[in-house]
Amino acid sequence: MGGADRLSSLSNDLLAAVISLLPTREAVRTAALSRRWRSVWFRAHSLILDSRSYGDCSEDIWAYFGRQDDGTQDRLFSNACDILDAAGRCSHAGNLSLTVHGRNKGYFEDVMGWSCRDSYDLMASILGASALRHLEEVRVKFEVVHSPRHCGRDKKLYDWVYKLDPAQLPEHTLRVLDLDNCRLQSPLAVSFPRLSSLRLCKCSSSAKDLEGWIRTAPSLGTVHIEDHDFLYHRSDDDTRRFALHSPSLTALTIVLRPCLSTREHFEVVETPRLHTFKYKGSFNALSMRSQTPNLERVDLTIRRFYDETGYPAKTWFAPFWQLLRNFRHVKAIKLKVPNIEGIAVVDKDVRHEHLFTLPVLERLELRGFLNPAGRTDDAALAVANLLQCCPVLHDLLIRIPTDPYQALYEIETSTQVRVSDFDVSMDVFRRRRFSKEMVVPLMVDPDDDDSSQVGVLPGLTGCRFRCLDNHLKNVTLQFELKELNSFEVCLAKFFAENCMFLETLQIDDGKHNFLRHVNWMVERWRANAPKQRKQTECDSADSSKQAGKRKRRNYRVYNAE
Hints:
The protein has 561 residues and is α/β, with parallel strands linked by helices. Helix content is 26%, strand content 20%. The chain contains 15 helices and 21 strands. The strands form 3 sheets. Strands 1-2-3-5-7-9-12-14-16-17-18-19-20-21 form a 14-stranded parallel sheet, with helices on one face. A 4-stranded parallel sheet has the order 4-6-8-10.
């Protein structure tokens, strides 16, 4: 029994808004549904061209081995012209989106008309249509499809594949510009006064031209620059600097290339209204010179730091704390570092030079690899330094991946299919009931005190922190449990025993059965917390007395003679 026809109750304008989200070729096909739908697509305000609408080349083995021209360019251009002529009878198109899926850079150049045998430019021809004179949004994207089976590894695009002249874009109406793998170069000076969102991913342009486009956009609110190739003049070789001036900017994302030259520098000069900031790169490639009183959220992903000799630096706490000092009045910070122990300020004599107070920080997320060959004391000291700098911290999340590459990239290194946690637990429980040789203690056994195997963390255990005594309520720890007396478990025990106003302690210790999880020991740690704190205070008092006795014993009185 069919349901009610709810689409018929919608107005034509609303149906046109829905159709505008579809690729244009599929939107035109809706005209075959009924008489009413014949003219609905004329009202669509978007022109979405997608090469996948003309066939999937993911299994085309001949295109992978060299056959490039498959007619996609002619079909895209002819269909775009036909659709624009039809759409021009009703209204002008406001959005243009072009997505090309191909195998390699040569295929994209053939489709866009940049090969030596092509006589016209596809994008320039489409932008020259009269129906696109009032464009508000322009998106160009190139995606590499997966290679056919038995054809080796997939290729990726790391460079620009199409040269776009910004002078061809509508200057006075353009609001959104989203480009991937494009080189922006124009002999004329252009400006976009209504531009509100700019996204450039793996593009290339002159640094001075891009500075001018951003500076002359008074309504610009969002900027996303990722893996951009900044081109400099020969006279700027010694000082390759990109200065960002945008008084209206509220959201900024900067992802610098891993192979960025040490001479290149990104400076945030004037962004007084900045609200969110995301950065991925090295310490020495970023400078925050602008005052940002409205900044609330910061996401920092720090790549591996190299010294002057080109080798990875062993200690890099100084540039880390210097960079973090720029965000002293931020409420939420997300940190991704190569390894946790690298941010620890070990020397007590220099802590006052590097450590500072984050007076309004309420949420902190730390993600970093823990070196198995390193000292856990330094990792504990790094956590202690952060807790000392955050007196009003409410929420804390610490992620310790098992792979160093997971510390900086959201990837899954293992491709094996894992058995679910529930299936493992049920299997152990069934074997416990029917096997006399297998003796498995229950996790709620009061006589089994595994918490005694969990040690302490020098530099962290026994220290008092203002956030733990008054503010910290939610703590989340994510790691892969390997042994009970590990740094991660000791850290969980520390928070369970020392957080006075703790409401939630969530521990994700990986895929284990119900007997191996650490969570069942949290309640025991919380119950023993007052006794443990009292014992710690007594031990510290005894240590102070012993230190005082040693001082008095070494004190001598000499006569005037």
